[in-house]
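Narrative summary of target 7.
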Amino acid sequence: MNTFGRKFRVSIFGESHGEYIGVVMDGVPAGLELSEQDFEQDILRRKSGAKGTTPRIEEDMPMIVSGVYEGHTTGAPLTVMFRNGNTRSGDYSLFEAMPRPGHADLTAALKWDDCQDPRGGGHFSGRLTLPVVAAGVVAKKILTDATLLDDTPFTGVDARIVELGGIVSEHSRGASLPEAWQEAIDKAIEEGDSLGAVVECTVPDIDPGYGEPFWDSIESQIAHAVFAIPGVRGIEFGDGFAAAAMKGSEHNDPIGADCRPSKNGAGGANGGITNGAPLTFRVAFKPTSSIRKAQTTFNFQTGEMDTLEIPGRHDVCFALRAPVVVEAVTAIVLADFALVK
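Modeled conformation, tokenized:
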């Protein structure tokens, strides 16, 4: 399904090379100030054009087509759309005979009896993260609405790349990429290959109480939303997988006099509920599936193994544009919990 959430319900629609893509948000409180300009900053953070990202550059101008009147949300379903303009669908004709390894070409064809839109990856494309980012902008506004807050003012969600191509380095938003990462990207471009990365996300100021035991734990809901992002391969909270090699005395978080943990091995949650420490997790993104480097795979037209060299415009490392997407899905989850409270 293409809908997520209980009270704040987010539905995305469209295909990579269709005329429009967009998002419908139901449950948005009335009275929030909202205009097209509010989306600009986060959309620019996702935009392509930098080295290592796809040369496909779209205008990405948001169109609010319902749910806003005179600069404020109305409480009715809020719809934001984007036009696709810079498409080259002919690049994808080859994949009907030779589905791309690692991509959804084959699984989509099998599930939908070859009725899917294959152009640009169709509904499975990373292009669909644009309306997700738009929903994240609205979710952040919901979270900063003073009528919904508890004790702690919401100061935002922050995500950044901490590892690229297996190389760990410090990198802050807006700064140039570390030299080792730039060299790795240059090498991947030269070889016609791609790179993965790890994105760390933190919600520094969050009250205790977000999340429910078991099925709707804060971790399970965030993991659910994060895995909707194309290319995600794993997620860990706090100490994550390293906790399996620790002793309880090393992993446990002592509780301070303020009723909050004095360290954060749990990543900000116990029993599926936020504990007042910063919510912290890391997301692993795989290398982009579409690569120029020759691969041996099956040709369904000839019935034989064949060599595939993928044409078209693709990210060498999609994760370069992913931090703002991770922020968006995190805000969506938290906004839904805030409205259900």
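The longest strand covers residues 20-26.
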